[in-house]
Amino acid sequence: MASEEKSLNFIEQIIEEDIKNGLSQQKLRFRFPPEPNGYLHIGHASSIALNFGLGIDYQAPVNLRFDDTNPAKEEQEFVDAIKRDVQWLGYQWEHECYASDYFQQLYDWAVEFIKKGKAYVDSQTSEEMAQQKGTPSTPGVDSPYRNRSVAENLDLFERMKNGEFPEGTHILRAKIDMKSTNMLMRDPIMYRILHKHHHRTGDAWKIYPMYDWAHGESDYLEQISHSFCTLEFLPHRELYDWFLDQIYDDKTIRPKQREFARRNLSHTVVSKRKLLKLVEDKHVNGWDDPRMSTVSGLRRRGYTPASIRNFAHTIGIAKRDNLIDVSVLEFCIREDLNKTAPRVMAVLDPVKLVITNYPEGKEEWLDAENNQEDENAGFRKVPFSRELYIEREDFLEEASGKFFRLTLGKEVRLKNAYIIKGERVVKDANGNITEIHVTYDTDSLSGSGTEASQRKVSGTLHWVSIAHAIEAEVRLYDRLFTDESPDTHKGKDFLEFVNPNSLQVVTGYLEPSLKEAKNEDKFQFQRLGYFTVDKDSTDKKLVFNKTVSLKDTWEEKGKKEENIINNSLKEINKYFKVATQEERNAVEKAIGEELKNVNNFSLLQNTLKKNINNNKSSLLFSNYLLKYSSLKPSDVETETLHKLYSMSLKSESPYVRLEVIKNLKNDEANRSEFSSQLAELKNSEKNEEVLNLLSEN
């Protein structure tokens, strides 16, 4: 690794420095340590790629070690799912290990701690412990049980192990320093009583080690050279090292814990607790629901191992937590599937198209290219006939010159087939188009080499022959959350941002070449996106999941909402320039209607914060955000909201003062905070409209 000319990330630099300082490369060993209390998610995938990637780069073994120390939450199902996901991602571990493999050794070491006066049994309640532990700014005080004799501690600890006490009556604590500035060093818990069945050890143990106790010692027993964790474990490193100090033999490898940043993904959550909540509350259909950020969910959605590995490589390793836009992940799967996915034709919102001059009963089998990105992909045959389905949105009875699809009197090409011209439509009693009648140019067959076939037309449409079409259930998935960071808003439940339109189920009509498609087969439905066969498919009914669109529609939506904000900010300047109240009302109405179309909660919050300043246009706009957008006063941090109210009440503009008084009138929770300021304003106000509104309050 050191000889390669490449830029090293800081993790690799740590390893290279250790090798330079004498650590034999043959002694390198890494591990991936999941807790089997849920399915792996995209954040775990980055950690997997890091640890197993290091193993590949340094030709070092990597252990898969399950942190199975809490039988209350862990199940064999999760163990199996984790192993399946790691292997599917393309990695293979050296040894399959479990913290439970070391329960006896951990217990024996704990006994030695007691004998050396470094651990004791505490019999306080959890509430008493929390109180005596102190706060980050105040030192803790010793437990009344801290000075129990060694003999008493040994007796109690063995009886805990034998199951003689109920849960919560005793714990084993390390005796370190109750005045430490690191709260984790204030006599941390090593063991607690749990009368739970363990998925591997059964009922053999009634006490279970805490993560901090089991983690470093498991690393040590496996002779892991580098133990990489996410940043939340940085404060734990001191405790990790303290525990190792008590057992370390300098003839062995001493594990080194180092931390890297968690990479959060926008429009989703990567907390197993919150993912479990989504499953339990049935917002999704299980851990492998294609909307979930789990590896199993992404796999079922149609993501490939290569796309996820490429995503992990693209975002890299960092020292600061960061929110990665999900569009980066979507780019990676588009890039992969663009090279490998066969192109096929499918219609998801059909309208019937009749080629009136095509002979009834005739059919042709036309050549269609499987993938223009792969010269070895070859061609397939697709059936063509008089009656076809096309997408309803591909036709307009009357259209502007900028509409490049089918309309009356204009020509378009049917993909792999002929040029057609719109002639007339058939409608039902309600005026809905039920059929589009067209004529075709018999000499215009694609690839025939005729002059007509080379004629340029405004657009190309995909289609399927009605007589040959296969019906399939098509699940159109969208992002699970409407907000980019749903679990970071103070006072808001992340479930409030669940996208009600994250799943739409339609009946699609597919070309017959898809009849033999199998689970996880992937295709590009031309002009529609990438789709994969779902495991719910049967011999009688195909089910497809939409993996991703051909382009980032959310980026377009995001830009549209940002444009609404930017344009509204420009428009609001007109409010102060127009001469009449009628004109001002028109400006306000237009801005208000636009703001109602902005649903990005984070965008609204950030916009509000940015516009709380002494500029009258900015203050008026911020008040309009509270008045017209989905943002409520309760959604805004109290300090920020009060700053807006206070600055608006002091504004030189009576229009700003008028709007803030209206907002305060509707904000009962905060109105009383400004009663004195409103009273002062009432005594000094000169604007009649503002004064009248104040008098109403």
Automatic annotation (TrEMBL):
Record EC number: 6.1.1.18
Which residues hold L-glutamine?
D67, Y211
One Gene Ontology MF term: ATP binding
Q: Which spans does this entry mark as compositional bias, Polar residues?
A: 125-140
Q: Where is this motif: 'HIGH' region?
A: 34-44
Q: Where is the Glutamyl/glutaminyl-tRNA synthetase class Ib catalytic domain?
A: 27-338
Annotated tRNA synthetases class I (E and Q) anti-codon binding domain residues: 460-534
Cellular location of this protein?
Cytoplasm
Where this protein primarily resides, as one coarse class? cytoplasm
KW Nucleotide-binding (keyword) present: yes
Q: Which SUPFAM superfamilies match?
A: Nucleotidylyl transferase, Ribosomal protein L25-like
Residues binding ATP, per UniProt: E35, P36, N37, T230, V270, S271, K272
Task: Quote the InterPro entries the UniProt record gives.
Answer: aa-tRNA-synth_I_CS, Gln-tRNA-synth, Gln/Glu-tRNA_Ligase, Gln_tRNA_ligase_bac, Glu/Gln-tRNA-synth, Glu/Gln-tRNA-synth_Ib_cat-dom, Glu/Gln-tRNA-synth_Ib_codon-bd, Rbsml_bL25/Gln-tRNA_synth_N
Residues in domain Glutamyl/glutaminyl-tRNA synthetase class Ib anti-codon binding? 341-441
Give the keywords, sorted. Answer: Aminoacyl-tRNA synthetase, ATP-binding, Cytoplasm, Ligase, Nucleotide-binding, Protein biosynthesis
- Would you kindly state one Gene Ontology biological process term found in this protein's UniProt entry? glutaminyl-tRNA aminoacylation
The UniProt annotation puts the region (Disordered) at 125-146
Q: Name one Pfam family in it.
A: tRNA-synt_1c_C
| Family, as annotated | Belongs to the class-I aminoacyl-tRNA synthetase family.
Q: How does this protein assemble?
A: Monomer.
Q: Report what the protein is called.
A: Glutamine--tRNA ligase
Q: Report the source organism.
A: Flavobacterium microcysteis
Name of encoding gene: glnS
